[in-house]
């Protein structure tokens, strides 16, 4: 069997033994951290053999000369104590079995000792007395404490330098290794070039962790050019501090004469002299000359980015900093003064500077409904031209434009269709007709259909007539209004007055606003028209504005047409529907069809329906109307039903009017708002205004029972509130009158009476007289002190003759 031994990790060649074979390995030595130079210990280990029941350990100071064996039992390790520096140690081990047989010695392990130590402020590892197998090597690591360095390492008393580690190789005897330490120091080499100094300078020694500050000072008229620390620039600093020094460093300062760069540049069409960047010594001066090319001038000179004006020369005096100077040039110009009068524009406008020898065009544009009256150039008329060009301009000029109004035709409004009773006094109303130019209008009314009536004044804005007697089916009267402005421009409109008895007129509905594309087949819709009794007999559609189209089946509820081609702004087509019932009564309605391409039509909003009282000031509100692209250009309100009213301004977004007087049932006024955008597209919306009587009480009364017998009067007088507001408190007085006019003797007073609308109160009356009362009168006065407001004060005196 083969045997081997190991010391501190080294494997030794094996030797064969006779008899019981065991493998023994001396594995390692371990030393107590408190071991001294005189004593240490080593733990030895060997490989075990299956047949062995125990082992004996041998040690000595000569080969095969051992102290008595130590029986360690069936263990594979043993710790030998008492090792000292100096002697050489020899170790072996044998194995024995259960019969007492013992093997030969194992291969002998020879160990020398090394003593390692370190002075203060550092350490060596491993340290102490170390047994080491012969012919092996051992490495030691030397570590200084913080702020210290290795001063020297002595091996067997001889210096091997300030090493951080040392290896004892091929060990064949005892050795010593000792490390010493000293504080760590570093050198900073400070130097300065010509024309300045650094302090301190030269090789400056500093302990580890110290700080060292160096001051750099240039000579007179010089400046610090740069400071490099360890070869890297830290800029032209006047002081530099090395903090917490842990290495060697260098610091080097260089200097240069104080001079400043002045850079002169110029734009095109001129020059600056000198040009480029030049170095100017501190305290000296430098002058620059700026020269424009022919027909050019200096536009501006910027010194250090700030304008100094259009100067031709500039001097930097007592230079103490870097500067820049930059010149720009502009072509000579002539000013053309362009102006426009009211109601138009000229573009460009104001004082226009024109480059020498170039041209300048002006465009003259009148406002809508205006024209160019004249264009005057340098005091002379150039005519009513829409553009003018000045060519090869070398001098100043003037140009001015004036404008005059283009007359616009008026807008006629014949008022709403009306329903009246026979014999009624009817008022036609053209008062909402307007003229865009604000001119006065003349009016001319004519009757175009129905039984002829006599107008009070056909040239009045609001003539009247008496409605004729009619049969049960009633009759329809049509009137045409023509308005004329001062230039003779005219416009017309019609209205229908239905005179009714039994038959009620129809209500026309021309459908909602439509938006279509060119060439679409469009269907108008009058199917919403209604008649309350005898039904609709006929439909008639007429186009009232826009590119004429061919209506198919114009006498039906659903005529059609092909939408025309339109420009990018589109176009609005308007249609009038007249429906006639079987009794001949008529009604009209309008609708709009927007034919679009690029521009989108507006959306009309006529505001909320309202309920008001007679005499109220009513405001219509179309301000929430919108347009998605070019905006709303105009508003137009038209009354479509109810007693005619006069709008404050039918072209305003929010006109006002006075609510008319009405009967107890009130009345409904209908209005249509037409909004038009700037490309001419339109939209309509409607609203209704219901007009109530003003809230007021109205007292009246009558004798519900009245008796006279044997000079005694008795009865019940009933008081009624026929108004629409509470009445009270009020008083009723009763008088005896001899003629029914003058109040005679006071008979009775009823006080603190009150009545809600539509209710009555009965007052019991009794009176006795010694004289006969026949032929006299009883006068009852309701609310004699007029303490409550009433709709009608004339019915508060009730006269009853005594019979």
Task: Walk me through the structure.
The protein has 803 residues and is mainly beta. The chain is built from no helices and 66 strands. Strands 6, 7, 9, 10, 12, 14, 15 and 17 form an 8-stranded mixed sheet that branches. Strand 38 and strand 39 form a beta hairpin. The chain is elongated.
Strand content: over 45%
Averaged pLDDT:
90
> Low-confidence parts lasting 5 or more residues at pLDDT below 50?
1-38
Task: Name the helicity range.
Answer: under 10%
Can you summarize the main beta sheet?
A: 8 strands, mixed
Q: Give the CA-CA distance, first to last residue.
A: 173 Å
Shape: elongated
The Rg value, from CA coordinates, equals 64 Å
Topology:
Blueprint (H helix, E strand, L loop, with lengths): L1 E2 L2 E2 L2 E2 L3 E2 L23 E6 L8 E7 L9 E4 L3 E7 L5 E8 L12 E10 L3 E4 L2 E6 L4 E7 L3 E8 L2 E2 L5 E4 L6 E9 L1 E8 L3 E4 L2 E6 L4 E7 L3 E8 L2 E2 L5 E4 L6 E9 L1 E8 L3 E4 L2 E6 L4 E7 L3 E8 L2 E2 L5 E4 L6 E9 L1 E8 L3 E4 L2 E6 L4 E7 L3 E8 L2 E4 L3 E4 L6 E9 L12 E4 L3 E3 L14 E8 L14 E3 L8 E10 L5 E11 L13 E4 L3 E3 L12 E10 L14 E3 L8 E11 L4 E11 L13 E4 L3 E3 L12 E10 L14 E3 L8 E11 L4 E11 L6 E11 L2 E10 L5 E11 L7 E11 L4 E9 L8 E6 L14 E5 L2
Parallel strand pairs: 10-17, 18-25, 26-33, 34-41, 42-47, 48-53, 54-59
Antiparallel strand pairs: 1-4, 2-3, 5-8, 6-7, 6-9, 9-10, 10-12, 11-13, 13-16, 14-15, 14-17, 18-20, 19-21, 21-24, 22-23, 22-25, 26-28, 27-29, 29-32, 30-31, 30-33, 34-36, 35-37, 37-40, 38-39, 38-41, 43-45, 44-46, 46-47, 49-51, 50-52, 52-53, 55-57, 56-58, 58-59, 60-61, 61-64, 62-63, 62-65, 65-66
């Amino acid at each position: 069997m083969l045997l081997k031994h190991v010391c501190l990790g080294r494997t030794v060649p094996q030797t064969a033994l006779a008899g019981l074979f065991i493998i023994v390995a001396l594995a390692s030595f371990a030393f107590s951290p408190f071991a001294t130079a005189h004593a240490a210990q080593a733990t030895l280990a060997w490989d075990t053999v299956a047949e062995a029941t125990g082992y004996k350990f041998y040690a000595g100071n000569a080969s095969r000369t051992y102290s008595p064996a130590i029986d360690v039992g069936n263990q594979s390790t043993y710790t030998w104590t008492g090792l000292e520096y100096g002697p050489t140690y020899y170790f072996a081990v044998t194995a024995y079995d259960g019969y007492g047989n013992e093997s030969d010695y194992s291969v002998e392990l020879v160990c020398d000792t090394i003593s390692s130590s370190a002075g203060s402020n550092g350490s060596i590892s491993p340290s102490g007395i170390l047994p080491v197998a012969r012919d092996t090597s051992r490495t030691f690591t030397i570590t200084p404490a913080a702020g210290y360095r290795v001063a020297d390492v002595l091996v067997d008393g001889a210096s091997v330098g300030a090493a951080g580690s040392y290896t004892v190789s091929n060990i064949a005897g005892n050795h010593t290794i000792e490390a010493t330490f000293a504080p760590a120091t570093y050198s900073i080499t400070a130097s300065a070039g010509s024309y300045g100094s650094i302090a301190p300078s030269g090789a400056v020694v500093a302990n580890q962790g110290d700080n060292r500050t160096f001051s750099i000072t240039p000579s007179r008229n010089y400046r610090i050019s740069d400071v490099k620390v360890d070869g890297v620039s830290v800029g032209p600093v006047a002081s530099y501090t090395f903090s917490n020094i842990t290495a060697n460093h260098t610091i080097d300062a260089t200097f240069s004469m104080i001079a400043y760069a002045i850079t002169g540049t110029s734009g095109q069409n001129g020059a600056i002299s000198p040009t480029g960047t030049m170095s100017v010594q501190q305290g000296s001066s430098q002058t620059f000359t700026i020269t424009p090319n022919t027909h050019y001038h200096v536009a501006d000179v910027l010194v250090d980015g700030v304008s100094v004006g259009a100067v031709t020369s500039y001097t930097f005096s007592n230079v103490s900093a870097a500067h820049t100077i930059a010149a720009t040039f502009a072509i000579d110009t002539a000013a053309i003064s362009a102006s426009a009068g009211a109601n138009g524009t000229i573009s460009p406008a104001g004082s226009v500077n024109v480059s020498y020898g170039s041209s300048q065009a002006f465009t003259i544009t009148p406002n809508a409904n205006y024209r160019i009256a004249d264009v005057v150039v340098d005091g002379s008329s150039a005519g009513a031209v829409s553009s003018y060009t000045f060519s090869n301009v070398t001098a100043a000029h003037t140009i001015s434009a004036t404008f005059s109004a283009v007359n616009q035709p008026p807008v006629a409004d014949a008022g709403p269709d009306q329903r009246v009773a026979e014999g009624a006094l009817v008022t036609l109303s053209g008062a909402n007709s307007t003229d865009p130019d604000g001119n006065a209008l003349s009016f001319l009314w004519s009757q175009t259909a129905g039984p002829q009536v006599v107008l009070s004044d056909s040239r009045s804005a609001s003539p009247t007539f008496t409605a004729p007697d009619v049969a049960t089916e009633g009759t329809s009267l049509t009137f045409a209004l023509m308005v004329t402005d001062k230039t003779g421009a005219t416009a017309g409109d019609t209205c229908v007055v239905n005179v009714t008895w039994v038959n009620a007129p129809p209500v026309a509905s021309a459908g909602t606003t439509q938006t279509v594309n060119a060439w679409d087949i469009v269907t108008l819709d009058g199917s919403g028209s209604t008649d309350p009794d005898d039904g609709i007999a006929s439909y008639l559609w007429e186009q009232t504005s826009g590119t004429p189209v061919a209506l198919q089946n114009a006498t039906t509820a659903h005529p059609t047409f092909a939408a025309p081609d339109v420009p990018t702004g589109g176009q609005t087509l308007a249609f009038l529907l007249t429906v006639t019932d079987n009794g001949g009564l008529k009604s009209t309605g309008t609708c709009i069809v927007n034919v679009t391409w690029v521009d989108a039509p507006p959306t009309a909003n006529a505001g909320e329906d309202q309920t008001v009282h007679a005499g109220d000031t009513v405001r219509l509100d179309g301000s929430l109307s919108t347009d998605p692209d070019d905006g709303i250009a105009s508003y137009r309100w038209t009354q479509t039903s109810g007693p005619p009213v006069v709008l404050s301004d039918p072209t305003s977004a929010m006109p006002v009017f006075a609510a008319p007087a009405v009967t107890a049932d009130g009345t409904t006024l209908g209005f249509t708002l037409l909004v038009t955008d700037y490309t001419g597209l339109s939209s309509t919306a409607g609203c209704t205004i219901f007009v109530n009587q003003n809230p007021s009480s109205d007292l009246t009364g009558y004798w519900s029972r009245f008796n006279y017998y044997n000079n005694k009067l008795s009865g019940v007088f009933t008081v009624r509130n026929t108004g629409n507001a509470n009445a009270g408190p009020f008083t009723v007085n009763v008088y005896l009158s001899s003629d029914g006019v003058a109040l005679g003797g006071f008979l009775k007073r009823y006080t603190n009476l009150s009545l809600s609308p539509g209710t009555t109160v009965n007052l019991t009356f009794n009176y006795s007289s010694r004289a006969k009362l026949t032929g006299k009168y009883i006068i009852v006065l309701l609310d004699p002190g007029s303490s409550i407001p009433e709709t009608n004060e004339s019915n508060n005196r009730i006269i009853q003759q005594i019979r």
